[in-house]
Design brief:
Its cofactor is pyridoxal 5'-phosphate. It comes from Gulosibacter bifidus. The protein has 642 residues and is an alpha/beta fold. The chain has four domains: 82-257, TIM Barrel, CATH 3.20.20; 280-375, Lyase, Ornithine Decarboxylase, Chain A, domain 1; 398-493, no CATH class; 511-634, Lyase, Ornithine Decarboxylase, Chain A, domain 1, CATH 2.40.37. The protein has 20 helices and 29 strands. The strands form five sheets. Strands 21-24-27-26-25-28-20-16-29 form a nine-stranded mixed β-sheet. An eight-stranded parallel β-sheet has the order 2-9-8-7-6-5-4-3. Helix 5 links the parallel strand 4 (79-81) and strand 5. Helix 1 packs across helix 3 (40-48). It starts with a strand and ends in an 8-residue tail after the last strand. The structure holds pyridoxal-5'-phosphate (PLP). Pyridoxal-5'-phosphate binds next to helix 9 and strand 9. The site of pyridoxal-5'-phosphate has 10 residues, from helix 9 and strand 9.
Length: 642
């Protein structure tokens, strides 16, 4: 069976052109999070290889590790990243050629300044790091609060005069809550740009709007002449800087293009009015099993845990209703014929992904972005593991010693001490299920450990068998592999009653952690994230955690999930975004860089809680970690064992 996902890179170029033709401003395509699950390098290459007069003049990603990976893959367009780790290696960031950096706080500015040498004598601006000051105009995520703008800009100007940075841009991001709220953000942004100019900065690039705002508010992309008042000479002279080389200063107003690039229309069945083409196609075979019809795709591939009345067509045009979505398989109920045929999950029609999103009560780009784990196995042009020193902390720590202890427990431990009843039982107790890249634990490491204990391997889908074979692991195709084949991971209750020999069999053999990358005090009334679904009811402190639905936190946990910051349990507030969530730190004394525990381990929520909040199966929680999450292995040395 061939890989079920196809990416149409011509459609990327088509969608870029359609959008660029409709919007009277330079367009910055956003290729963060593996290009929303489509493969970051491949999408960037498609855009970079357009004819010189048509290709975008900048690409955007979230963090510096993503930018590094694009450079390493030979992408030569200017890049921008705006989500900076507290432990970022700013020297290394500065070494990435033509990388613009979004700066959200004085702290980040100071760190960058520290890494940037003062230029003696005449300042060569091309040698300075290009900075885009990120203003929080209401979204409550990253970006500086309005009360900090003046000092941030003044400090930036000082550094600019020393030739250490160049303020190349001012940026913000819109919440899309209502026309009035968006207008308030635009007003705040105007104040910010006017202040920057008054202080003496001369950013080339001003950008606020993403796909929807760019289409909905044409005036977002008109430079308001008032922003570029022609007193620039006077104010620049007052600021004692290079006014002479910019007599007719005029910034360029750009827009950032994300979802429409991928053929996704947020307003469907109304529409942005663009002729967008679908980019991601997902097809798979329907197979009959135990008088049911199933497809070998499930939550571990990124499908949502529940869909309400979702109809799909097969290749013969027959309709099927999606039933239960399990970890690796989903059931299908035939509405017309029952002849098995290839199922078109999405991609043949622009509205397909929207149908999934509607049925799963989410947004279309969460659907494509979370398919990333499937791409992990079969898309060579995806971004490689995050470059150390550049990526924010997003770590899946795997306890190989705990896994080894369970494997050493052998048949007895795996079967509650009972004698294995049948030959098949005995067989199962000696095998490990390595589906979905060992459910995110990394098939190669788990297989290595399993071999040391004389185990053999199974996988629940044909696709997994092939992906394992490609890395030299021989796994038997066993779609019905039961929970006893997954005991080593510690997914818990699914393996009812198991584990007398190993004790903590219900405990996950891994944990997910991150860091606070920004902390800010806000007033009562401060809203957070898209749609302003949460507002502070008292003055409080907000923390920014660089994990979103592309990484680990599905949108479905909205309003429920808690995590632990420095050991204190705090709620995740506001909508989960692709790259980040906000936590309400209350009056706890918190600082940038503090550790954040999400699930597992001694400090995080239990996997069971996380499953209740997200609706995911335990196996899907670990299997769907995105490619920006690094795996860290603890222990696992089994020398001396046969
Ligand atoms: C993801 C992102 C975008 C792209 O948004 P779309 O709605 O997908 O167009 C733009 N700006 C920022 C800051 C983002 O994080």
């Amino acid at each position: 069976m061939s890989a079920p996902i196809r990416i149409d890179l011509d459609a990327i170029v088509h969608n870029y052109r359609a959008f660029a033709d409709a919007v009277p401003a330079p367009v910055i395509p956003v290729v963060k999070a593996e290009a929303y699950g489509h493969g970051g390098v491949a999408v960037a290459q498609a855009l970079a290889s357009m004819p010189a007069d048509q290709r975008p003049w900048m690409l955007a990603v979230a963090d510096a590790a993503e930018a590094y990976a694009l450079r390493a893959a030979g992408i030569d367009l200017p890049l921008i990243c705006w989500l900076q780790s507290s432990t970022l290696d700013w020297q290394k960031l500065r070494a990435v050629p033509d990388l613009h950096v979004g700066i959200s706080s004085l702290h980040e500015l100071a760190m960058l300044a520290d890494a940037a040498p003062v230029q003696a004598g005449r300042v060569d601006r091309s040698a300075a790091t290009q900075v885009h000051l990120k203003l929080d105009t209401g979204l409550g995520r990253n970006g500086a609060r309005e009360c900090e703008w003046r000092v941030l800009m003044a400090q930036a100007l000082l550094l600019e005069r020393q030739g250490r940075i160049r303020v190349a841009g001012i940026m913000s991001h819109v919440s899309g809550t209502s026309k009035a709220d968006d207008a308030a953000q635009l007003d705040a942004f105007r104040r910010g740009v006017a202040l920057a100019i008054e202080i003496g900065l001369r950013p080339d690039l001003i950008h606020l709007a993403a796909t929807v705002a760019a289409m909905q508010y044409a005036n977002f992309v008109d430079v308001d002449p008032a922003w570029a008042r022609d007193d620039t000479d006077a104010s620049a002279a007052a600021a004692g800087r290079h006014a002479a080389d910019q007599p007719g200063y005029r910034p360029t107003f750009a827009v950032r293009l994300g979802l429409a690039l991928y053929g996704l229309d947020p307003l469907y069945p109304d529409s942005l009015g663009l002729d967008l083409q679908p980019v991601m196609e997902l097809r798979t075979d329907v197979v009959g099993r135990d008088d049911r019809w199933v497809m070998e795709l499930g939550q571990a591939d990124g499908l949502p845990p529940r869909v309400n009345r979702l109809l799909l067509n097969d290749n013969d045009g027959d309709r099927w209703q999606v039933g239960q979505i399990g970890s690796t398989h989903s059931t299908l109920l035939p509405l017309d014929g029952t002849s098995p045929s290839e199922m078109r999950c999405f991609g043949s029609h622009p509205g397909d992904v929207n149908a999934w999103a509607y049925a799963a009560d989410t947004i279309n780009y969460e659907i494509t972005t979370r398919m990333m784990s499937r791409l992990r196995d079969n898309a060579p042009a995806r971004i490689q593991p995050p470059e150390p020193g550049l990526a924010p902390q997003r770590v899946f720590t795997i306890d190989l010693d705990l896994i080894a202890a369970r494997l050493a427990g052998g048949t007895g431990a795996l079967h509650r001490g009972e004698q294995a009843r049948s030959v098949e039982d005995r067989h199962l107790s000696c095998v490990i299920d390595l589906s979905a890249n060992a459910y995110g634990f990394g098939a190669e490491r788990i297989a290595e450990l399993g071999r040391a204990f004389g185990k053999s391997f199974v996988a629940r889908t044909q696709h997994d068998v092939e992906a394992l074979a490609a890395v030299g692991i021989d796994a038997e195709y066993l779609p019905t592999a039961g929970p006893e084949t997954r005991l080593a991971y510690g997914f818990g209750s699914g393996a009812a009653g198991a584990g007398s020999g190993t004790g903590k069999s219900g405990e996950l053999a891994g944990s997910l952690s991150s860091e606070l990358i920004q902390v800010k005090r806000v007033d009562a009334g401060q809203a957070v994230s898209y749609g302003y679904t949460w507002q502070a009811t008292r003055p409080t402190t907000l923390g920014l955690v660089p994990l979103g639905y592309a990484d680990a936190i599905p949108r479905s946990v909205f309003g429920r999930a808690m995590c632990f910051v420095n050991g204190v349990r705090v709620p995740i507030v506001g909508r989960v975004a692709m790259d980040q969530v906000v936590v309400d730190l209350g009056d706890h004394n918190c600082a940038v860089g503090m550790p954040v525990a999400i699930w597992g381990g001694r400090h995080g929520a239990s996997l069971q809680e996380w499953c209740a909040w997200s609706g995911l199966t335990p196996a899907a929680v670990t299997a769907t970690l995105g490619s920006r999450v690094t795996r860290r292995y603890l222990g696992g040395r089994v020398e001396g064992l046969a």
